Amino acid sequence: MNLLEMLQTMIPPALFFAAPLIFTALGGVLSERSGVINIGLEGLMIMGAFVGVVFNLAFVDVFGDIWTPWVSILVAAFVSALFALLHAVASITFRADQVVSGVAINFLALGIGLFLVKQWYGKGQTDMVDAPFYTADIPVLSSIPVIGPIFFSNTYYTTWLAIVLAIVIYLIIFKTPFGLRLRSVGEHPMAADTLGINVVKMRYIAVMLSGFMGGLGGSIYALTIAMDFSHSTISGQGFMALAAMIFGKWHPLGAMGAALFFGFAQSLSVISATIPFLQDVPQVYLLIAPYVLTILALAGFIGRADAPKALGSPYIKGSR
Amino acid sequence: MSSNKFINLLVPIISLLLGLIAGAIIMVGFGYNAVEGFKALWNGAFGDIYFIGETVRQITPYIFSGLAVAFAFRTGLFNIGVEGQVIVGWLAAVWVGVAFDLPMIVHLPLAIAAAAIAGAIWGFIPGLLKAKLRVHEVIVTIMLNYTALYIANHLVRNVITDKGDRTESISSSASLKSQWLMEFTQYSTMHMGIILALIAAVFMWFYLEKTTKGFELRAVGFNQHASKYAGMNVEKNIILAMVISGAFGGLAGAMEGLGTFGYMSVQSGFTNIGFDGIAVALLGGNTALGVVLAAGLFGSLKVGALNMPVAGVPTELVDIIVALIIFFVASGYIIRWFLSRMKRRENK
């Protein structure tokens, strides 16, 4: 097996595992940059996966095989954005402890999802979806020599959507007035307020956007990897996305890089059988590799990262 | 001041009621009989001595995992890694329980200590990294959850057994089960662990509130810079808090390993005891007494829910109720605001 073939085996699954994490971690970046902790990413992904799967099952006849998954993830994203509104109301308007509210989001999403699945399907999990995303060769790009086969063939459009969105969100946060305002309410809301920025509005927008992105992440996970919805469809991916966000130092491209790293490390245990020098490594080492490598990376060369200054504190007008 | 205390007590009670009312509305909305639903829930948790036994059994690990999260929180640390500490504690306890043959007076304490030490080590790692290298404890503990899960499964499958899916049962000299309790509760799975859990809660209260070390831990939780300026060793306190928190998590695992199950099987996913512990701790306001009460509520709802299908209601409804209670507790500000308004109106 030569190097090119090896890369062709290793890169596509890495991208495949990374995509849902990228979306969700970007959502986390948006929320936390505005000063609202989002432990609820897991719950937002659960809601996204639930809506994505149920919508897909219910409307496959209406939209057909090609468009159903796309409409599903869009609907899931909007529903999750509305769901995130709960977190926004609690933590911004009601000044709830943001960690507590996020934990409640996680429980609530799972409760609602499983309750309705039991209600509608009469069992613990949904049927398998008929119209998931399929791998495809991206036109034009996949015919580039060397790069084409490694990155653009046998891949998912959603993966590339994730990477493009990471760049777009980077540009929004760091290159537009909206982004500057978003960051300023997360760093020093009082200063932002004196300059006429509506702190509450900015934070509401940011939290709902994080719901939108979490919904995309969850539904894409469900429609590329899990294929149905049950209690274990999303188990910890939201927390991995949270870790990717912190690992990436609250930076969209950093979060994307961290998510790609997690995806790559996760794919190792899946593809190890086909890679010569990994074949003899006991499975357990490959399984724990992503997590241990992350800890080592953080301890070794990434070092400390500082959260946005006002993270976790509600903004109370007039208080110092 | 006394009215403040009263309101502090009132907020969780109102939250609980609002959560139950919301549950009732959902039941009615989906065409169920809410009265029958709640009756089934109550009977499932406290209907007879057997169900009470089951409820107490469920509460036991929740107390430990809740204490674990709460203890770290009081020092300003967020230990999402209780899940992993539960798994390593469970494994260590069962391993000691299976591997040795000793008199009970040595064996049982040894197995429990093994669980506490395993959990403590699992808490020491993120504590050390946080203290010395400023690595965010949230990421490290999340990563250690997965690491614990996979390592434990590997050890159960390849080291403790020969490709088996579960270990042998522990010898009776390491078991928390008691014949007397089982007979008394009509053969429920209740075990002696609840006594240990309550002792642990008292320990946490005493240690945090009544000792110098506990004062330092809380001080670090309030303000690291001020604590440092006052001459406290912040790094050491961070590590200590995570070690004790981890030990509580490990003991939660021991309750499952030595009490409820008596063995460890290959886990397909997380046990959720640690994650539920986060909710228990937050619901209990991160105090020892609060954790015991919250664990009681949580355990009763979880066990009672299993009986709800008797009234045709899906058990998952309880998860929604629990989530809403947490929401309402978190939004205590708005409840307080409402209460103080009502009071002002009365005074007029």
From TrEMBL, chain A:
<feature type="transmembrane region" description="Helical">
    <location>
        <begin position="41"/>
        <end position="63"/>
    </location>
</feature>
<keyword id="KW-1133">Transmembrane helix</keyword>
<dbReference type="GO" id="GO:0005886">
    <property type="term" value="C:plasma membrane"/>
</dbReference>
<keyword id="KW-0812">Transmembrane</keyword>
<feature type="transmembrane region" description="Helical">
    <location>
        <begin position="70"/>
        <end position="94"/>
    </location>
</feature>
<keyword id="KW-1003">Cell membrane</keyword>
<feature type="transmembrane region" description="Helical">
    <location>
        <begin position="204"/>
        <end position="223"/>
    </location>
</feature>
<dbReference type="Pfam" id="PF02653">
    <property type="entry name" value="BPD_transp_2"/>
</dbReference>
<feature type="transmembrane region" description="Helical">
    <location>
        <begin position="100"/>
        <end position="121"/>
    </location>
</feature>
<keyword id="KW-0472">Membrane</keyword>
<dbReference type="InterPro" id="IPR001851">
    <property type="entry name" value="ABC_transp_permease"/>
</dbReference>
<feature type="transmembrane region" description="Helical">
    <location>
        <begin position="133"/>
        <end position="151"/>
    </location>
</feature>
<feature type="transmembrane region" description="Helical">
    <location>
        <begin position="284"/>
        <end position="303"/>
    </location>
</feature>
<protein>
    <submittedName>
        <fullName>Nucleoside ABC transporter membrane protein</fullName>
    </submittedName>
</protein>
<feature type="transmembrane region" description="Helical">
    <location>
        <begin position="157"/>
        <end position="174"/>
    </location>
</feature>
<dbReference type="GO" id="GO:0022857">
    <property type="term" value="F:transmembrane transporter activity"/>
</dbReference>
From TrEMBL, chain B:
<keyword id="KW-0472">Membrane</keyword>
<feature type="transmembrane region" description="Helical">
    <location>
        <begin position="320"/>
        <end position="339"/>
    </location>
</feature>
<feature type="transmembrane region" description="Helical">
    <location>
        <begin position="278"/>
        <end position="300"/>
    </location>
</feature>
<keyword id="KW-1133">Transmembrane helix</keyword>
<keyword id="KW-0812">Transmembrane</keyword>
<feature type="transmembrane region" description="Helical">
    <location>
        <begin position="7"/>
        <end position="35"/>
    </location>
</feature>
<feature type="transmembrane region" description="Helical">
    <location>
        <begin position="55"/>
        <end position="73"/>
    </location>
</feature>
<feature type="transmembrane region" description="Helical">
    <location>
        <begin position="238"/>
        <end position="266"/>
    </location>
</feature>
<protein>
    <submittedName>
        <fullName>Nucleoside ABC transporter membrane protein</fullName>
    </submittedName>
</protein>
<keyword id="KW-1003">Cell membrane</keyword>
<dbReference type="GO" id="GO:0022857">
    <property type="term" value="F:transmembrane transporter activity"/>
</dbReference>
<dbReference type="InterPro" id="IPR001851">
    <property type="entry name" value="ABC_transp_permease"/>
</dbReference>
<dbReference type="Pfam" id="PF02653">
    <property type="entry name" value="BPD_transp_2"/>
</dbReference>
<dbReference type="GO" id="GO:0005886">
    <property type="term" value="C:plasma membrane"/>
</dbReference>
<feature type="transmembrane region" description="Helical">
    <location>
        <begin position="80"/>
        <end position="98"/>
    </location>
</feature>
<feature type="transmembrane region" description="Helical">
    <location>
        <begin position="104"/>
        <end position="125"/>
    </location>
</feature>
<feature type="transmembrane region" description="Helical">
    <location>
        <begin position="187"/>
        <end position="208"/>
    </location>
</feature>
